[in-house]
């Protein structure tokens, strides 16, 4: 059973905002905080009740804000601290929580801690980062190349798990722990409701046994951040690549006072791709099997699961494993149904609610992401430029970082000036204005689905039972709470005959408008939710 506190969290529906690409309020081609304020009513209408904002702190922007140079102030391009305060107040007045992105693993090399640290081996900040005379292992940076960089000033090497300008903080230094606690308390003091914690599994390293994550002191450090009375009511979600239930429990069991929940990446890692830049022919069956596995594990261990398919680091899920052409609406709504009718916390990435798909570019100049640019160089040497570009088009994080297409106007209604990154090349076909006029509106489907979720204790808290079999080309399950049952049917790519014995639920929602009964032919990507009369009236 979930505790009352966790039952409250289970009612959250989070919308992730990539501020640079959400909405530009002042015509400089870059999204900003006032742009978010302008769209709060839109978000409220969609039905979300929390937003996670990717980093908006001061930053030289080598990794779009994940390289922070001042944790206490807002990036100039995004606005001011007063804008942030206003955003918090305006969101709260609409019943929307604010979750900030906490980046505890590294800072920009332009952060004053690093600038001081590199000056000498014996000042206050000297041990804020990992310095060694020689690289002590062969770790690579996630963005390509070695994770060790030589610094002339100190005549030593420092560790950077990401870009050269993102130096890893040394959490084994208690002063560092204190500094990050202060950051958490500062933003909490300004009214922030929680944090998404960037690569938190990497804050403790195991230099000897060769891993830059899940080090020996990881749980001690997370607990030092969030196990304090000051942080008791915060919602915290860790970006964490734990792939086994024991490790997930160590992070997210309530009594451990570490994280409320975490992002679990099994389905992201293995579905629809061989590796980050190499696609694989795959079916939604593999997604279903992973979801089922983790639903069961989360029930057995009283954990809250995160229900997500997209974020700022991954190409759109519908382009990876759905049909993002002729059946784009059906795919987008089916995938939403599969995920957001389970127990856990839905996370919707900006643009998902209009069925945004990956776009294609003919030149590397149309990409901005440091990871894509680094790997383009590496791949070009290995496979030639043409193949390299194809790989980048498939796996680039820029696929999710192009401005939202609000309409078919110049710059897709995102800005009046040329955006910092080329807009989605499919914007004339996929944009909010057009979606809302269509009979097959992804936005309207999302809105109905979220409203149904919020009004249904079965969907929020109910037990999970799987009715389909492993070989079936569909996913059928029930959610039961206090004797009432909601049944969810998700058919995959092909037409299927689906029969559930003794079924008598009423249709609550479907992405095929003529769907009435349960037991018959289900069409490609058809999704349908059934429940009792009462729930139907409530809507
Ligand atoms: C996380 C972020 C990603 C960033 C990296 C380094 O994976 O989601 O966008 O580049 O951490 O901070
Ligand atoms: Ca702007």
Ligand list: alpha-D-glucopyranose, calcium ion
Ranges where pLDDT stays below 50 over 5 or more residues in a row are none
Find the count of extended strands (DSSP E, 2+ residues): 24
In this structure, how is the largest beta sheet organized? 8 strands, parallel
Distance between the termini: 27 Å
Structural class per helix/strand content? Answer: alpha/beta
Helix content: 25-40%
Cα shape: globular
Strand line-up of the largest beta sheet? 13-12-11-5-2-1-17-16
Mean pLDDT: 96
* Rounded radius of gyration (Å): 23 Å
Helical element count?
18
| Proportion of residues in extended strands | 15-25%
Question: What would the keywords be for this entry?
Answer:
5-stranded antiparallel β-sheet; 8-stranded parallel β-sheet; binds calcium ion; globular; 539 residues; alpha/beta; 18% strand; binds alpha-D-glucopyranose
């Amino acid at each position: 059973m979930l505790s009352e506190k966790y039952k409250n969290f289970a009612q959250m529906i989070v919308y992730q905002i990539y501020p640079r690409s959400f909405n530009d309020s002042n015509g400089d081609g870059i999204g900003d905080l006032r742009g978010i304020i302008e769209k709060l009513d839109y978000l409220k209408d969609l039905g979300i009740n929390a937003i996670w904002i990717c980093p908006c702190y001061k930053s030289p922007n080598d990794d779009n804000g994940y390289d922070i140079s001042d944790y206490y102030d807002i990036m100039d391009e995004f606005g001011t601290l007063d804008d942030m305060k206003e955003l918090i107040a305006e969101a709260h007045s609409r019943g929307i929580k604010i979750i900030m992105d906490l980046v505890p693993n590294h800072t920009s090399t332009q952060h004053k801690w690093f600038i001081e640290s590199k000056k000498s081996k014996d000042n206050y900040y000297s041990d804020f980062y990992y310095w060694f005379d020689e690289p002590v292992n062969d770790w690579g940076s996630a963005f390509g190349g070695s994770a060790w960089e030589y610094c002339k000033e100190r005549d030593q090497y420092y560790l950077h798990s990401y870009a050269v300008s993102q130096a890893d903080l040394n959490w084994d230094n208690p002063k560092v722990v204190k500094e990050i606690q202060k950051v958490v308390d500062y933003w909490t003091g300004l009214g922030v409701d929680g944090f998404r914690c960037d690569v938190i599994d990497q804050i403790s390293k195991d230099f000897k046994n060769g891993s830059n994550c899940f080090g020996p002191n990881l749980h001690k450090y997370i607990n030092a951040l969030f196990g304090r009375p000051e942080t008791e009511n915060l919602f915290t979600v860790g970006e964490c690549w734990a792939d086994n239930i024991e490790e997930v429990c160590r992070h997210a069991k309530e009594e451990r006072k570490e994280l409320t929940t975490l992002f679990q990446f099994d389905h992201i890692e293995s579905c629809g791709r061989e590796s980050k830049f190499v696609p694989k022919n795959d079916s939604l069956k593999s997604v279903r099997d992973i979801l089922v596995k983790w639903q069961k594990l989360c029930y057995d261990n009283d954990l809250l699961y995160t229900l997500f398919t997209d974020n700022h680091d991954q190409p759109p899920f519908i382009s990876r494993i759905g049909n993002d052409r002729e059946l784009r609406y059906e795919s987008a709504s089916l995938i939403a149904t599969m995920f957001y009718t389970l127990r856990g916390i839905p996370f919707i990435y900006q643009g998902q609610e209009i069925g945004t798909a990956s776009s294609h570019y003919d030149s590397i100049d149309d990409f901005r992401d440091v990871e894509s640019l680094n790997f383009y160089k590496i791949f070009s040497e290995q496979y030639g430029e043409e193949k390299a570009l194809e790989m980048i088009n498939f796996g680039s994080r820029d696929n999710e970082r192009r401005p939202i297409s609000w309409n078919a106007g110049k710059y897709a209604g995102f800005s009046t000036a040329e955006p910092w990154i080329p807009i989605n090349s499919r914007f004339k076909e996929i944009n909010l204005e057009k979606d809302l006029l269509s009979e097959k509106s992804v936005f309207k489907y999302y809105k109905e689905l979220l409203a149904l979720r919020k009004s249904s204790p079965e969907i929020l808290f109910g037990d999970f039972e799987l009715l389909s079999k492993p070989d079936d080309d569909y996913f059928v399950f029930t959610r039961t709470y206090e004797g009432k049952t909601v049944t969810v049917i998700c058919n995959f790519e092909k037409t299927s005959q689906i029969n559930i014995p003794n079924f008598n639920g009423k249709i609550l929602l479907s992405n095929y408008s003529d769907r009435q009964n349960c037991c018959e032919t289900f069409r490609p990507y058809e999704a349908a939710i059934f429940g009792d009369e009462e729930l139907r009236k409530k809507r």
